[in-house]
């Protein structure tokens, strides 16, 4: 359990703030983030990498969390940012990122989106030959990188693997020379190369092998076309331990193995000293966030005890979507009673996949109790929805003993805001 998160007989605290105080002030369900933990996570990764190589850029992966205050903290730490939609570019700029600190790796763009992208002056990471042609038809960007599909991915769930023979992501190695040649012939001046093999990876060998492979491909491009790379980006994907007993990724080993491969291959292929880039999302924000939720129903099935909470798959979809485990703790003051029971924790939606946890060993739960769903900072709020016409929850930032809402709760008006009743219906 990360340090920002502590529980004693007085109940759960996030840094210096009792969970109870947050629930009282903002209601439940509520996303709560620790500013200290976000900064610690960023600095730990940065320091481990910079210790071995000076030219490191960390691009926070916006898809994991786009709250403007969170982006602001990472901007303040010196991060750049990885975006995949023009909406994310919009938010990154709102949070203060300069265009040259923003890398765009989106795909399947409409013409309007291409115009918007070119007009926004960000760095463009190209996902297909078709996208390259469509960009070049309109304008020659000053900087281009290509996302390479290394054909071997990894990830904590099959949906989290983003490379492979039939993956939708990136450009195959066989087409990569053609892609760089076209960009070069069109007058592009600055180049990068990129890959992202998948998410939730705890075994450092996957990233080491991907780095070696990507560097070999960069070497081939350099040899054939004489292109020099301003940056080499191995994407995100560092996992975090979600289940008790699961080991965290060995950061020292990661930075040693990956950067040794990076430096050796740079030297072998005469690539000079390009920036080494990474795009972590989960590693930075995953364990810096929790959801506080209230139990409002306790009931039984034939063989189970169920605790019904006010958060569901509309609040947090990872358990339903990836069968993901998220640890839960009873946030209340402990009454000295440590006896536990097994509960399934269910959400309020009319959807049988709406469970946040199954067979969880927890102290006796009573209606009105509060639970914390852990490690929900990444891919939490950004994947929430209004399904069943539920409103999205607020987000709260804790810093030491202070807390503040960094997003207000939606209300019913938000549910109808963009809707119109067709005129002919009267
Ligand atoms: N860079 C690129 C190009 C990506 O596609 C991704 C994630 C990242 C960086 C950041 O990956 P991370 O360090 O956070 O693993 N919704 C899923 C995760 C999907 C991630 C897709 N791409 C989940 O809840 O686990």
Keywords:
426 residues; alpha/beta; Lyase, Ornithine Decarboxylase, Chain A, domain 1; TIM Barrel; 2 domains; 9-stranded mixed β-sheet; 8-stranded parallel beta barrel; 12 helices; 30% helix; globular; binds ligand LLP
Walk me through this protein's architecture:
- With 426 residues, this protein is an alpha/beta fold.
- It has 2 domains: 5-33 and 286-416, Lyase, Ornithine Decarboxylase, Chain A, domain 1 (Beta Barrel), CATH 2.40.37.10; 35-282, TIM Barrel, CATH 3.20.20.
- Helices cover 30% and strands 25% of the residues.
- It has 12 helices and 21 strands.
- The protein has helices spanning 19-26, 35-50, 68-77, 86-94, 111-120, 129-138, 176-186, 204-225, 251-269, 282-285, 318-322, 412-416, and strands at 5-8, 11-14, 17-18, 30-34, 56-61, 80-83, 102-104, 123-126, 143-149, 171-172, 190-194, 229-233, 275-278, 289-300, 305-309, 328-330, 340-346, 355-363, 370-373, 395-399, 402-407.
- The strands form 3 sheets. Strands 4, 14, 15, 16, 17, 18, 19, 20 and 21 form a 9-stranded mixed sheet that branches.
- A hairpin with an 8-residue loop joins strand 17 (340-346) and strand 18.
- Helix 2 (35-50) packs parallel to helix 3.
- The N and C termini lie far apart (57 Å).
- The mean pLDDT is 95.
- Ligand LLP binds next to helix 10.
């Amino acid at each position: 359990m990360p340090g920002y998160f502590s529980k004693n007989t007085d109940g759960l605290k996030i840094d210096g703030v009792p969970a109870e105080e947050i629930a009282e002030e903002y209601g439940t369900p509520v996303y709560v983030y620790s500013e200290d933990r976000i900064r610690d996570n960023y600095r730990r990764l940065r320091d481990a990498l910079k210790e071995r190589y000076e030219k490191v850029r960390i691009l926070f992966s916006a898809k994991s969390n786009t709250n403007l205050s969170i982006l602001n903290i990472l901007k303040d730490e010196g991060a750049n940012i990885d975006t995949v939609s023009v909406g994310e570019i919009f938010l990154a700029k709102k949070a203060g990122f300069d265009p040259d600190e923003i890398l765009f790796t989106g795909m399947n763009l409409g013409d309007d989106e291409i115009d918007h992208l070119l007009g926004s002056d960000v760095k463009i990471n190209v996902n297909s030959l078709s996208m390259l042609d469509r960009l070049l038809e309109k304008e020659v960007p000053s900087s281009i990188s290509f996302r390479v599909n290394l054909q071997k991915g990894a990830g904590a769930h099959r949906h989290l693997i983003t490379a492979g023979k039939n993956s939708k992501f990136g450009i195959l190695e066989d087409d990569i020379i053609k892609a760089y040649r076209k960009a070069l012939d069109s007058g592009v001046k600055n180049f990068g190369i990129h890959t992202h093999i998948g998410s939730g990876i705890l075994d450092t060998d996957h990233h080491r092998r991907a780095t070696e492979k990507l560097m070999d491909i960069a070497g081939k491009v350099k040899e054939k076309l004489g292109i020099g790379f301003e940056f080499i980006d191995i994407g995100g994907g560092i996992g975090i331990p979600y289940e008790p007993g699961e080991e965290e990724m060995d950061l020292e080993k990661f930075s040693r193995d990956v950067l040794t491969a990076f430096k050796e291959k740079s030297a072998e292929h005469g690539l000079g000293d390009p920036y080494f880039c990474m795009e972590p999302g989960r590693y930075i924000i995953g364990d810096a966030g929790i959801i506080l939720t209230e139990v409002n129903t306790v009931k039984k099935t034939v063989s189970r005890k169920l605790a019904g909470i006010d958060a569901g798959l509309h609040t947090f979809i990872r358990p339903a979507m990836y069968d993901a485990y998220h640890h839960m703790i009873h946030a209340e003051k402990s009454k000295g009673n440590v006896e536990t029971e097994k509960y399934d924790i269910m959400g309020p939606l009319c959807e049988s996949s709406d469970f946040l946890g199954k067979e969880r060993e927890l102290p006796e739960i009573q209606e009105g109790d509060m639970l914390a769903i852990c490690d929900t900072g990444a891919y939490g709020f950004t994947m929430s929805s209004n399904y069943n016409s539920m409103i999205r929850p607020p987000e709260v930032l804790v810093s030491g003993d202070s807390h503040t809402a960094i997003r207000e709760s939606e209300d019913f008006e938000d549910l109808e805001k963009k809707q119109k009743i067709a005129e002919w219906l009267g």
